[in-house]
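Dear colleagues,

As part of the handover before I leave the project, I'm documenting each prediction I ran so the next person doesn't have to rerun anything. This entry is a single chain, and its sequence is reproduced below.
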Amino acid sequence: MLLFSLVAGCAPARDFDGQLREITGPYRFDVVKWELNALTQEAGKLFSRQESTDNATSAAATFFANVERINGLVSEIEAVRAGNRQGDLTSLEDELNERRRQNAELAGTVEGLLETQIREAFTQQGIFNPLDTYLGLRIGFPPVNIYLAKPPHLLVVSPRDRIESIREVTLLPEMSVEDMASIEAEIDSLGVSSLVVNLGGISTYPSYVMDTADARFILDTAGEEWLHQYMAFTPLGFCYVLDLTGIRQDYDIATMNETVASMVSKEIGGIIYKQHYAPGQADDAEPAAAESGFDFNKEMREIRQAVDDYLARGEIEQAEEFMEQKQQYLAENGYYIRKLNQAYFAFYGTYADSPTSISPIGAEMKELRSRSASLKDFLDTVAAMTNRQDLADSLR
């Protein structure tokens, strides 16, 4: 990772990149510095006493109960401050701080438990390391290692005339909405579309995973970030590294990588969740439309298709006006999106199994999974691919 960062940093900077660095400079997240600090702390953990399984399970139950209450308290406090409801603000803030303090103390124990559960789930599926298929080494690698905290933000930049991520910059975890809007306004003035995204996780090492989500989200996200680390040692993942560093950009490769990681992690997350957190619960099903009849997934697919049609005709202003109207329409139906633009679809569209994507890669990946003998077989097949054509050839 350091090598690729240095190579990318030595490339001749264009005027746009210089302006981008100037705008984002005060908010940039230093990944290398964070990695060095994190790995030092991880080394110290090797000599610390491990919690018993019973204690860790109890800690996780308390942690996730606190998460639910913390999110509720944040909403209550915002409502009281806005004058929309009555309440003792001091009492609410004291409880919020106390529960956050408790979770900060429990985080290390919960991280260890989740790491063990994730590693065991992949082992049960016969997924050990990227070289296992060739060398038969049944050793878990990379080691599953997660860090529960508020992840950094990600700035995504797309051209206005098409939906494609052309620049991504990691920004500080602590940013206000005003900070995000200010950065976006400056970058948009350069003639592009930008968006600062709240990330659920990021595949640093250890993997940064949001600490204010429920157990299922954290399991899915931690598994997905580990898969990115795993696939970096495979042909598909290595091509994605080249894309991320700008050495050889390929939006299809990015979509394939993100989609397979998302699909496999959700399958693994579902197994762990059902076994340890919701025993006896029915298997996951496709989310139903709201009682009002509003189908968010269907609506997002139609919006994306319409935007692509506008842009294909060169009607950029009309596309942007359409997205603004749809953003308001979604909010009226209970789905608040801070900013709906080309950059939004460029980021979320790389997950071809999501409603924001119209890429056929999602359907093709699902078809390939249904034909695969196992989850490992599916992962091995996709991980060996180096281009979009490989996926089509595999299905044939």
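The longest helix spans residues 89-124. The radius of gyration is 22 Å.

All the best with the project,
I.
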